[in-house]
Amino acid sequence: MIVPPLLIGGSRLGRAVLLAALSLFGIACGDGNGPIRDTTAPTVQSTSPADGAHGVARATLITVMFSEAILPSTVTSTTFTVSDLAGAASASGNTATFTPSGQLTAGATYTATVTTGVTDLAGNPLAAARSWSFTANATPQASAGDDQDVTTGETVQLSATATDPDGQTLSYNWTQLSGPSVGALSGQNPSFTAPGGVSTIELQLVVSDGVEDAPPARVVMRVLEDKAKALWVSAAGSDSNPGSRAAPKKTIQAAIELAKATGADVYVAGGTYAESITLRDSVSLYGGFSGTNWLRDVAANVTTIQGGATAIMGAGADSLTVEGFTIRAADGAAPGQSSVGIAFDNRVHIFSST
């Protein structure tokens, strides 16, 4: 390039300024061959989830970060795909995002791919296609243990089990759903002291792997006077049955007579029992149980003894409890005849019914 001498203000300074300006112009124009063009191909800098990741949350987005901004229109359902997963691809700045149309399948492995159809703003294609794989979190499974019959005041040991295919650390969260409070419970196998009265304790366990919760597991503790000596009655039962929860007696009196012989107590499901009752020594009666799951809720499972003029006779019976019943006696059959809900002699009794 030849620049003729110029005078600015009587000096050659103008020539130097002009040379500098032309030099810069030459750089911008590529020394006369046009503007410099971006020819650098974008590359993948990182992915989420990472390649080989396990325990990935099932409600997640799949993203790719590039080395530079990319042309959004080149990120499509054909240039950014995830195997066996429907969804939509989009881009903003240097990040492309695949949004699944639903949750990932628990425990399933997916392969994500971005192709060289993705370009930067200058039209340069991705330097190389990139694929990576990850595995969705597998839902942990939990059991709160078997239901138990326990004796009042006994130390109750819970025995939960749980598995997690991803091998993640599990946490155990216990919640009491019903029954007298047993206090806070923590850890996999906590213990507590059974209440001093007949009741049922219903507990729920939720196990988490830090990503997802297992379906709630439930366990019931039936607190009895003596867990080894219990007979059960339901209006839907039969007096030919042995008196278990699976095969209960039908009438309270039939259960009382069997309990007298075996030293047991009698536990009665809600319903109306049209019979007069004769109590026996040391045979306690407890009403208010559900006839389906045998949870005890006296208010919800009203247990009524609908007897004759004397609904319950307690003469000669001692050392027993009658609890959780509504007792109704028939009207006296003749003028002046009393209608008696419960009749005792002067022995000592513990009694709680309405």
Keywords:
mainly beta, 4 domains, 35% strand, Immunoglobulin-like, 4-stranded antiparallel beta sheet, 354 residues
If you had to describe this structure to a student in words, what would you say it looks like?
This protein is 8% helix and 35% strand. With 354 residues, it is mainly beta. The chain has four domains: 8-37; 44-136, Immunoglobulin-like (Sandwich), CATH 2.60.40.1220; 141-224, Immunoglobulin-like, CATH 2.60.40.10; 230-352, no CATH class. The strands form eight sheets. It has a five-stranded parallel beta sheet, with helices on one face. Strand 15 (199-208) and strand 16 form a beta hairpin. The protein starts with 12 loop residues before the first helix and ends with a strand. The model is unreliable at 5-30 (pLDDT under 50).
Secondary structure blueprint with pairings:
Elements: H1 13-28, E1 44-48, E2 53-56, E3 62-66, E4 80-82, E5 87-92, E6 95-100, E7 109-114, E8 130-136, E9 141-143, E10 148-151, E11 155-157, E12 161-163, E13 171-178, E14 191-193, E15 199-208, E16 217-224, E17 230-233, H2 252-262, E18 265-269, E19 271-273, E20 277-278, E21 285-289, E22 303-306, E23 310-313, E24 321-323, E25 326-328, E26 340-343, E27 350-352
Parallel strand pairs: 2-8, 10-16, 17-18, 18-21, 19-22, 20-23, 21-24, 22-25, 23-26, 24-27
Antiparallel strand pairs: 1-3, 3-6, 4-7, 5-6, 7-8, 9-12, 11-14, 13-15, 15-16
